[in-house]
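#onboarding

Welcome to the new folks! Below is a worked example of what a typical request in this channel looks like: someone posts a single protein sequence, and someone else replies with the predicted structure as tokens. Don't worry about understanding the tokens yet, we'll cover that in week two.

Example request:
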Amino acid sequence: MTNYVAEPFKIKTVEPIRMTTREERSEKLREANYNLFGIDSDDVYIDLLTDSGTGALSDAQWAGMMRGDESYAGARGFKRVEAAVRDIFNYKYVQPVHQGRAAEQVLFPTLLTQGKKCISNMHFDTTRGHVDLLGAKPVDLVVSEAKDTRNFSPFKGNMDTVKLERYIEEAGAEGVGLIIMTITNNSAGGQPVSMANMRGTSRIARKYGIPVIIDAARYAENAHFIKMREEGYADKSIIEITREMFSYAEAFTMSAKKDAIVNMGGLIGVRDDQELYEKVRGLTIPYEGFVTYGGLAGRDLEALAIGLYEGTEPDYLRYRIGQVEYLGGLLAKKGIPFQYPVGGHAVFLDAKEFLPHIPYTEFPGHTLACELYIEAGIRCCDIGSYMMGNDPETGEQLKSEMEFTRLAIPRRVYTQSHFDIVALALENIKKRASEIKGYRITWEPPVLRHFTAKLEPLK
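Example response:
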């Protein structure tokens, strides 16, 4: 079992969390129509729903927020964010927005149109949603190793470059509007993308004249994995690795609520294409606000500029990835199946193997998430067929190749004892796994249904 990596910080402020009974939790889940997004945070003991915006800010970030310049135009915080992005990513143009999906809403219409194909190593939920809303078609081409949850492969998040070139040849380069590289690859289990794969994908894209953008939410975690696992990078800094990664793309979108460790914020970066940047600026003003605040308060910009650097600190990253590895080690010892090796921000339970009697149409990933809440007040979410939704053309339920239950770990929030409780709860659920029933949807919206859908358990 992996030893726990001690926190490289002291705890200065604490927030009480409430213990509930099993009966209370069962009733709360029923009242929420069996949708874990509908549970009040006060009724959650350990919240692993997402690592997005749920991290703990540092003393430097809190101090920076007190210096926040709330000017409508030309605030100092924008200049600090701009300087940080130019330094870390070596991108000339920077546009703040209020979060990652806002970055997609602003950038995607400049690159995608009706009927175009959008290829990715794997689209995450909001990315897929924005592609669908534009009338384009999302295509996932992750490597086959990602679908084998039991075996080790260092870069399960990679794009399958053989399939990529074949798909472009068959579809026609003019029919492909965009290639998105998600780092780390969330839907594949938080798995990293290698530098060689970034380079190879970029070579193919440039051969056919197709722009590449990076979904950069977890850029520092991906750089850490490259440093640890890829030959030739052990002696390079996280920022040096990041600069090379981003040199293989034309632009990036970022939910800064992940590796920049802020509670709200996002970014669009454009490497050197002034024409593309002007289109981004033009859409930012009606959608997000003036270009130097982009939907954010000045204090948020200050925290973001600091967090971009804090997320790249080696001691922090060793601790961050170490927490996830510790939980994975506990689960492996108890025979709990998960995507191996663990990802950078989460452990992805293999719900298909955990609950083999539940078909994809009854949502094993969501089912296991509900059981974990009932068992111990632990909130998490499905990354599988439930999240995938329905085919926009046929209305048929899409089948995910992986049925995951994601345990996403907030940054600088939980300690060793919390992970021990998570492992014990899953061990208890495993003992009664064969008795667990799936769910059916009783109501759903047309897009991104998993946030608000209503369900009921099958009898």
